[in-house]
Amino acid sequence: MKFATLQDHTLDGQLLLVSRDLRRCIAAGPLAPSLLHALQHWTEVEPALQARYAALNAGALASQPFDPRQCAAPLPRGPQWCDGSAFLNHAHLMAQAFNTPPIPDLETIPLMYQGASDDFLGPHADVPLPSEADAIDFEGEFGVVVGAVPMGCAPAEALAAVRLVVQLNDWSLRAMGPREMRTGFGFLQAKPSTSFAPVAVTPDELGNAWHDGRVQLQLEVDWNGERFGQPHGGEMSFSFGDLIAHAARTRRLTPGTLIGSGTVSNASRAAGSACIAERRVIEIIDRGEPLTGFMRFDDRVRMEARWPGAGAGPFGVIEQRVVRAANAGNAEPAA
Amino acid sequence: MKFATLQDHTLDGQLLLVSRDLRRCIAAGPLAPSLLHALQHWTEVEPALQARYAALNAGALASQPFDPRQCAAPLPRGPQWCDGSAFLNHAHLMAQAFNTPPIPDLETIPLMYQGASDDFLGPHADVPLPSEADAIDFEGEFGVVVGAVPMGCAPAEALAAVRLVVQLNDWSLRAMGPREMRTGFGFLQAKPSTSFAPVAVTPDELGNAWHDGRVQLQLEVDWNGERFGQPHGGEMSFSFGDLIAHAARTRRLTPGTLIGSGTVSNASRAAGSACIAERRVIEIIDRGEPLTGFMRFDDRVRMEARWPGAGAGPFGVIEQRVVRAANAGNAEPAA
C-alpha cells in the first residue's frame, strides 16, 4: 500500500491511499482517519485498507488526482524519531577529515541519536531556520516506521515489525553539531524539524528494492537544480533490523516510531553525497580545504529515490526552500 | 490548578482536577478530556477549568478521593522531552571524578539531551529494565510543561510560556551513558522511560517556591526506605527560561513539550544526592573509589518535593520498584 497525509487543521492530518503510480488518491476512510491511527490499529484496519487500495488501483472507486503539494509528512507527528548513522563510509570520511578520536565500537554498534518527532515538515513546506551562520545542510536518508516493538528484541524480530518505508531529509545545522557532540549530550539545536517525502509505502511495494533490511535504490539529491549526489541505499553497514533492535535495547517502541538510516553514503566518489558536510570532508581530504559552502536562504533542495531506469520513484519527491524564520532573534550567547 | 491523569486504555488517559490538598479529585470534564488536549487548547479551556478547580476546593462538587496509584504520568505521552543538566555542581563533580575533557561553554550554554516522550511511566508503575549489569540509577528532577514557544524566543518570553511544573525521575543506565557520550550522538539506550509524580501544578500553586525560574523546594529522595538526599531546587545554574530558550533555538516547541532540570544537585555535601552516580563520584573524590553500587531488581525509590516544615509537597510522591523486563534478551554485542 501507499499512503500520504493531507494537511488539514489537525495534528495528524487526514490519511490518503495513493495509487501505485502516484497519480490518484482517495481518503482512507473512517476506519483509519490518520496514519498514526492506522498504525496503532494495524491488525484491525489493514484488511479494509488493502481492499480499498486494490479498488483504487483497479479504477473501481471515485478518486482524486494526487497532489503532493497538499501533503504534510506521512506522519506529521510520530511517537519517537531515532536516527542512525548506518552508512559507515560517511563516518569514516568524517573521522579522516577531522582526525577526531575513534568512536567506540563504530563497526559493531550503530550510531543513533534521538530526534524531535512532534513537528515534521511536509515535502514542499518551506524550511524556516534562524540564521545562515548556523551552516545549513541537508541529509538525504531512508527510514522505516514500525509497529509495536518489545524491549530487547533481536534484529530479525525487529525487522519484521517494519510497517512502512519512507524517504526523508534530516535537516542539520553544522555550526552546532561539533559543539553538541563534544558535550556528549548529542544533537539538539543541530537538528531542526525533519522533512519527509509525501508517500510512505509498505515494504512489499518496493519488491526487490526491499532486501536485506535495506532500501536498494539510488537517492537522487539536487541542490538548486544541480545534481549533488545519487548514492545507493544498499551500502548501509547496519540493516534496519539492527537499527530498530538498537533503539529497543532498553525501551519498548510504540507504533509509529520512526527509525532513520543516516545520510546515504557510498564508497564510490562517483556517487556524490547526500549532504554538504560529506562533500566538504572529501574536499578537505583531496584538496586540503573545503570548497563548497553551506545553504543560503532561498536555496532549494530536491530529493527522490528512483527505480532503476524508470521515471518516478516510490516515495515521490521532497522539494523544499530554506527561508529565514520569522522570529530569528536569540538571546543565548554564541558558541 | 493541580492536574493528574487517570490511567485508562487511551494513550492520553483521562484528565483529573486534584484539590489543593491532594485529597479529592474530579474529572476535568468534556472540555478537557486529557492534559495534552487542555494544553493544546489552553486559552479556550482555562477559565472553565479554573472555575471547576475553585468549586472542587470549596467542596461545592461531588468529588472522589484522589488515589495516585490509579494515575499515569500527568502527560502519559508528550510531543517532546528535552532534559537539561542545569545544576552545574553535578557536572563539576562528574568532571572532577573522571578527569574528562572540558565540556565546551559549560558555564554559559545549558547541557541538554533529547529524550523519548511517547511512553512515560506513572508514579507507582513498576520500572521494567533488561539487566542489572546496565547499572540502573535514578535522577530526581523538576521539570516544566510549556505552551507554544516560537523558534528563537528569549529566556524571559520562554519562561512566560510555562504552563505547568512537574517532578520526575529520569531513569538512567550508567553502563551505557559514557559510551554513548563518547560517540557524540548522546544518550539513547542510557535513558529508558522517564517517570513522573502524579500531580502537575500551575506555577501559581507553588507561591514563593516558584521564583527566578526555579523550583525553590527540597527534593527528598529515598532508596529502599533510607534517605539518599534532599537537595534544593534553587541552586539551578540555569533557569527554566534559559533551558526552554535553548531548546527553542532552532525549532518551535509545540504545546505539551517537557523541559527538565537535570538531576538536582547542591554544593553542600549535607544535601546528599538525587542520583547514585553523583554519590559515587563524591566517593571517588573523597576516598579514591566508588563504594555504593547501583540498583538491583526489586529495589525501590521514593521521591517527594516538600514544602518547608510541612507535610506533603505539591506534586505528590513517586514510589517505584525496578523489575526485570519480560523480554530481556538482546542480540546486540556488548560494549
Task: Please provide a written account of the structure.
Two copies of one chain form a homodimer. Chain A is of the alpha+beta class and 335 residues long. Chain A folds into two domains: 2-69, no CATH class; 73-330, Fumarylacetoacetase-like, C-terminal domain (Fumarylacetoacetate hydrolase, domain 2, Alpha-Beta Complex), CATH 3.90.850.10. Helices cover 20% and strands 24% of the residues of chain A. Chain A has helices spanning 35-40, 42-57, 88-98, 155-160, 177-183, 240-247, 276-287, and strands at residues 2-6, 14-18, 24-27, 64-65, 81-84, 112-115, 127-129, 136-137, 140-146, 162-169, 172-173, 195-196, 200-201, 210-211, 214-215, 218-223, 226-229, 258-260, 300-306, 318-324. In chain A, strand 1 and strand 2 (14-18) form a beta hairpin. In chain A, helix 3 (88-98) packs across helix 7 (276-287). The longest helix of chain A is centred in the N-terminal third of the chain and has 16 residues, at 42-57. The N and C termini of chain A lie far apart (46 Å). Chains A and B meet through strand 6, helix 5 and helix 6 of A and strand 6, helix 5 and helix 6 of B.
Put the structure in a nutshell.
Two copies of one chain form a homodimer. By secondary structure, chain A is α+β, with helices and mostly antiparallel strands.
Give the topology, please.
The structure is a homodimer of 335-residue chains.
Chain A: E1 2-6, E2 14-18, E3 24-27, H1 35-40, H2 42-57, E4 64-65, E5 81-84, H3 88-98, E6 112-115, E7 127-129, E8 136-137, E9 140-146, H4 155-160, E10 162-169, E11 172-173, H5 177-183, E12 195-196, E13 200-201, E14 210-211, E15 214-215, E16 218-223, E17 226-229, H6 240-247, E18 258-260, H7 276-287, E19 300-306, E20 318-324
Parallel strand pairs in A: 5-18, 7-20
Antiparallel strand pairs in A: 1-2, 1-13, 2-3, 3-4, 5-6, 8-11, 9-10, 9-18, 10-12, 14-15, 16-17, 16-19, 19-20
